[in-house]
Amino acid sequence: MDFSPTDIHVESARIQRQIEEYLGLGPGNLLFEFRQLDGQTRLDLITVNPRHQQSFLFRYETGYDKLDALRKMLTYVQRFRDEESSYTIQWRTRGDKELQTSYFRAHNVYEALDKLYYGRDLTTITVFSVVLNPSS
What we know:
This protein has 3 helices and 6 strands.
């Protein structure tokens, strides 16, 4: 099925809204960042915490184009997210006195920490604890 550029834009916006609604996050709390990587399109889905305005990687997906990556992300949030473990990380940014708590879904502790440190210099955040939350 061929889409016109307008159709692609409309379909892309529709899928992004579905992802926001499914996650219960409004515009501005989710960023969709696309880039070309090895002939494919990579979508980094970034969450922005409204309380402390820090951003973290929620998940990335790759596809043959923007729509393919968005569809894969939608499938992930609807179906596969519950297959990952939940982690609580307590951390503080350099120069800040307040301890922050953030929650991540990941396959392991390293993936959870990668999401915390996404786009940052490792020296800008101090991690105080990483806890695997009990599954329900």
